[in-house]
Write a structure and sequence with these properties.
Keywords: Membrane, Transmembrane, Transmembrane helix. It is built from two helices and no strands. It has 61 residues and is mainly alpha-helical. The chain has one domain.
Amino acid sequence: MTADAKQTEFCVYLSAILLGGLVLNALLGWWWADPVAALIMVPIIGKEGLEALRGETCCVE
């Protein structure tokens, strides 16, 4: 259950970043906000991917 909670937390962060970019684009017309949001997500996703490749888990006690 701890792993599922961590995964949900990770997805919430990514969704919030994406939503922020889309809202700024829709409300203020900032066309660049969505691509910037995507660039903010890249290191977060990359870090998670590298940890998965190394076999690191979030729930080691």
